[in-house]
From TrEMBL:
Keywords, ordered alphabetically: Membrane, Nitrate assimilation, Transmembrane, Transmembrane helix
One GO molecular-function entry: nitrate transmembrane transporter activity
Localization (cell): Membrane
Protein name per UniProt: MFS transporter
Keyword Lipid metabolism: no
Length: 428
């Protein structure tokens, strides 16, 4: 068995604990999206069943991402201390409970509480990035993190496409729509429990073994610094803002896209879900591309180059969202959506190409803080979609402006200038 951190990413290999862990962690994150956002494409049906108002739907969107802020901070620290394997397994089991139980909601209040509890699953991202970072060397970390995160985020798009089909299958089997959406949510709940077993059984905390099996004092990143020290670094908070402006908007769009296409362009549930799914489906390559480009820029221009790249991606994302908000037809809206989605997802990858280098003795804590920033961005954006005084289109316009402002902040942020070696990705 190969031990030590890999300097190459062979995406078609599953040999060795490093690549096995890489593939299991992105697949687990993929499944987590089914639990986290499985309800989103079903919201037109749920809105009718539970008689939800626009502000109540907005509250549900906010609830889905708000608790994740705190969950990401906690699991980031747990990764540093207990290890990603135990932390992920526990999170999957805990998260499956509200996913399996949300079908018991028969009022706005009970639905909101279940939606809030489900948000804990969103902390899975931090563990995915931490675990991937522990398996790969510095020259390939950005690429490995971006590929794992992107393929996991792909679950957000596939969820929008698949959950309406699962609901349709139950309707075809003779169940009413109110019964069908409740039964449909049992599917992601069971998937989470299956992945909990797989993660515990087939992964290790590090290439050398689990934390309980090795002498961590002899490892380079041993003796993690306090959370306070990690949080005192202003660069962490710059990345916090950046991730709020990219991933925060991604999860917001995942939550409202089907409703937006349904209400604005009068599409049916399946078509709206398909178009919303296209947005998420771009994660199969766009986030990875952001990480690959960031690693190559870092090899030539250091961390300052990565920072400028991130700022550029955010600026283009913001401009694209502003344009999207003004589109008069569904064809133009989808075309512009594909454009801003590309820059948004590349910004996701570029952000986490910087994160592992801010403080190598607190990768979990830094990942947790920055990851929480994504959810803070999602919460703030959710308030715009909750408001009855502005339309969804206006909400997207304001979001685009905010993203462009964050891009300016990142552009003037000075990250460490030490260059890293060029990454290598193998496709055969």
């Amino acid at each position: 068995m190969t031990t030590g951190k890999l300097t190459r990413l062979n995406i078609f290999s599953a040999s060795g604990i490093q690549m096995r862990t890489f593939h299991i962690t992105w697949m687990t994150f993929f499944v987590c999206f089914f639990g986290w956002f499985g309800i989103a494409p079903l919201m037109p049906i749920i809105r009718e069943d539970l008689h939800l108002t626009k502000p109540q739907i907005g509250n549900a969107i906010i609830a889905a991402v708000s608790i994740t802020v705190f969950a990401r901070l906690i699991v980031g620290r747990l990764c540093d201390t207990l290890g990603p394997r135990i932390t992920y397994t526990a999170l999957l089991i805990l998260g499956s409970i509200p996913v399996l139980g949300i079908g018991l909601a028969h009022s706005y209040e009970s639905f909101l509480w279940f939606r809030l509890a489900i948000g804990v699953i969103g902390a899975s991202f931090v563990i995915t990035q931490f675990h991937t970072s522990s398996m790969f060397a510095d020259n390939i970390k950005g690429t490995a993190n971006a590929v794992a995160g992107g393929w996991g985020n792909l679950g957000g798009g596939v969820t929008n496409m698949v959950m309406p089909l699962i609901l349709g299958a139950f309707v075809a089997a003779g169940y009413t729509k109110p019964e069908a959406w409740r039964l449909a949510m049992l599917v992601p709940g069971v998937m989470l429990l299956v992945m909990a077993f797989v993660y515990y059984r087939f992964t290790k905390d590090t290439p050398e073994g689990n934390y309980s099996e090795i002498n961590r004092a002899k490892t380079p990143d041993a003796n993690p610094v306090s959370f306070g020290k990690a949080a005192a670094d202003w660069r962490v908070w710059a990345l916090f803002l950046a991730y709020g402006a990219c991933f925060g908007i991604e999860i917001t769009f995942d939550g409202v896209a089907a409703l937006y296409f349904t209400d604005t362009f009068k599409l049916d549930l399946a078509t709206a879900g398909l178009l919303a799914g296209v947005f998420g489906f771009m994660n199969i390559f766009a986030r990875a591309l952001g990480g690959i480009v960031a690693d190559k820029v870092g090899a030539k221009y250091g961390m300052r180059g990565k920072g400028i790249l991130l700022a550029t991606m955010l600026l283009l994302e913001g401009l694209g969202i502003m344009l999207f908000s003004q589109m008069p037809s569904v064809a133009l809206a989808v075309a512009v959506m594909l454009g801003f989605a590309m820059f948004l997802k590349m910004a996701n990858g570029a952000t986490y190409a910087i994160v592992p280098f801010v403080n190598k003795r607190a990768v979990g804590a830094v990942s947790g803080i920055v990851g929480a920033g994504g959810n803070v961005g999602g919460v703030l954006a959710g308030f715009l979609f909750k408001s009855e005084s502005i339309s969804y289109g206006q909400a997207f316009l304001y979001i685009g402006i905010a993203v462009a402002v964050v891009a300016m902040i990142i552009a003037v942020t000075r990250f460490e200038k030490k260059p890293v070696e060029e990454s290598v990705v193998e496709f055969a």
